[in-house]
# Entry
Amino acid sequence: MITVELGNIKLEIDRIATEKFYKSQSGFICDCPDCVNYVNKISKVQSDLNGLEKQLGIDLTKDVGQGMDEFMPHDYDNHHLYVIPYYVIGKLYMNKKELDKENSKLFWRNIKRAEKRLTNNITLTIINTTDNIKIEKAENILTIWLEFKTELIEK
# Structure
């Protein structure tokens, strides 16, 4: 287990198990403009994360969403926002208290989560995932929702 601290957020990550999970996953295969644009910008996301994805064992090129967790593009008046789920195996603490596993029946606004803005363009929202998400031999799975703000794209 490795520990990653982001202000009052502490993640205890099984990086080896997380990396093993990503090796078994497929990359983004959709050829819609949103998916293609995100894939083309992964190097920018990596630059903004400054190695954090490697510390966590995440491969940003893999499309790992399960169930209702999926890549979500949003258009706003002056920017585009990608919200992408990534999973890590580990535990989440906020203010030194472990966050409970979430119930899939709760509405998003009621879910306990940790949020950290890393740059003007990158925000992470982290939850202790519900039992709906399955990774072989993993007891604790965290969902990290990566929010990436970029310029609008022409469709």
